[in-house]
Specification:
With about 270 residues, this protein is of the alpha+beta class. The chain has six helices and 16 strands. The protein has one domain: Carbonic Anhydrase II (Roll). The strands form two sheets. Strands 2, 3, 4, 5, 6, 7, 10, 11, 12, 13, 14, 15 and 16 form a 13-stranded mixed sheet that branches. It has a three-stranded mixed sheet with strand order 1-8-9, with no helix packed on it. A hairpin with a 2-residue loop joins strand 8 and strand 9. Helix 5 runs parallel beside helix 6. The longest helix is centred in the N-terminal third of the chain and has 22 residues. It is globular, with a radius of gyration of 19 Å. The relative contact order is 0.21. The structure holds zinc ion. The site of zinc ion has 4 residues, from strand 7.
């Protein structure tokens, strides 16, 4: 009798596991120890698609990210509209995922609306150097603000940074970043963080359909890359790098083929908007 009870319990446990794994499929993995950014390694970027069946898009997907945003190739449009966003202050946690630092909002932190679909802001994280390139040029840092629709589709806003004046948002969380650098702890509650304090600007941006840039490389991600490159100090980039407890100096996936995709550049017609 006891055995049967154990069996039933185990079955139930596996059902829950399967349900949970199905649910998180469209999200980026939170434990990044299974892959890395070293092309020489068995678990480097060109092998990601072989590591797990659920990661096969990393290898077979035709709409992968990041890409080079080449000015001669983009289609300039004025109808996409400004980035429609309504962010709000909310409780956040800083988390070391293994290859990057993620700031995660417990219940979302407001949303953006794209083509009538609402995407809730779930988390942000940084890549250095930048993953996307502009006319072949790579920058020092790229911020990804990851949003999710009720059906689990992702929309990411990307902001690129070059070395210069400090980024005010990173300045705001410097102490928290330093705190997780010095401990073995992987998570730290930071309290209320207001995403409105991120300097986005919304006048000119690139829009294309791509993928998550980390496994499982899920496709149909709506990308919005802000055209204006902002600035960050060398020290701020370094702080993000050392806070991650891996040996690597980089967490940028190599460029992926554009294939038949169109990249739009939204530029308002109204000269006052420029
Ligand atoms: Zn990212």
């Amino acid at each position: 009798m006891e055995k049967l009870a154990t069996k039933i319990f185990l079955c139930g446990f596996f059902v829950v596991l399967v349900l949970l794994s199905g649910q998180v499929k469209s999200q980026e993995v939170e434990d990044e120890t299974e892959f890395n950014y070293d092309e020489e390694s068995e678990t480097g970027p060109s092998r990601w698609g072989d590591l797990h069946q659920e990661w096969s898009m990393c290898k077979h997907g035709q709409m992968q990210s990041p890409i080079d945003l080449l000015n001669e190739r983009v289609k300039i449009v004025s109808h996409l509209g400004r980035i429609n966003r309504s962010f709000k202050p909310s409780n956040a946690t800083l988390k070391n995922r293994g290859h990057d630092i993620m700031l995660k909002w417990a219940d979302g932190a407001g949303s953006i609306v794209i083509n009538g679909t609402q995407y809730v802001l779930k988390q942000l994280h940084w890549h250095s150097p930048s993953e996307h390139t502009l006319n072949g040029r790579r920058f020092n840092l790229e911020l990804h603000m990851v949003h999710e629709s009720p059906t689990g589709q992702a929309a990411v806003i990307g902001i690129m940074f070059k070395i210069g004046r400090p980024d005010s948002f990173l300045s705001l969380i410097t102490d928290h970043l330093a705190a997780i650098t010095d401990t073995a702890e992987q998570e730290k509650v930071v309290g209320i963080i207001n995403p409105k304090q991120i300097n986005i600007g919304s006048r000119k941006y690139y829009r294309y359909i791509g993928s998550l840039t980390t496994p499982p490389c899920t496709q149909n991600v709506v990308w919005t890359i802000v055209k204006k490159v902002r600035t960050v100090t060398r020290e701020q980039v370094r702080l993000l790098r050392v806070a991650v407890h891996d040996e690597s100096n980089t967490n940028a996936r190599p460029l992926q083929p554009l294939n038949k995709r169109t990249v739009h550049l939204y530029r308002p017609d109204d000269p006052k908007e420029n």
